[in-house]
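Good day; I would like, with your permission, to put a structural problem before you. What I wish to show you is a protein chain and, alongside it, a tokenised description of its three-dimensional fold. I would ask you to consider whether the tokens describe a fold that such a sequence might reasonably adopt. You will find the record immediately after this paragraph:
***
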Amino acid sequence: MDVRDGLASNDVASIYQDSDGSLWFGTGGGVTQYRRSTVPPKVHIVSVTTDKTYSELDAIPSFPPGARVTLAYRAIDFKTIPEKRQYRVRIKGIDEEWRKPTRSETFDWTPEKPGTYTFEVQSIDRDLNYSEPATLTLHVKRPWWVYALFGTIGVSIPLIAVGFYFGKRLQTQRAIAQQFNPYIAGRV
């Protein structure tokens, strides 16, 4: 252990902030300058997993409400060690604000309603620089059988109405015919 003037070489004796924002640390081993980086990291979405994993983000099919969706993303940041990288996410249409930062590189989501949603993720580096958001549009659609059910109902109602109309018309015509024709009325 190197000791000068009663300080170990890694003990900080003083801190000074320069006019450009640089920090100067005086230690037993000398003076060190720390200049905060202003270059933001980059982030990209790696894959989406629903019924299977899609790494081609242009080929993600729509999925039904209630399906679990896992989005994986990674930062491109050589300043921050991987264990300390942080991310924040939001889903436009659900979240007004960004969610609380996390170190997780995946986000699990189970959509409740059909619609078009935009997933966004930002990376935060050690100097608290935020990356530009990486975005992905996701389509949540009703299952095919819901459309088939509505289609069946949509076709059935007019058919029932037409059947009712013609049945009533036939009944009216038969009543008129029975009044004027004794053979039909069974009076002969």
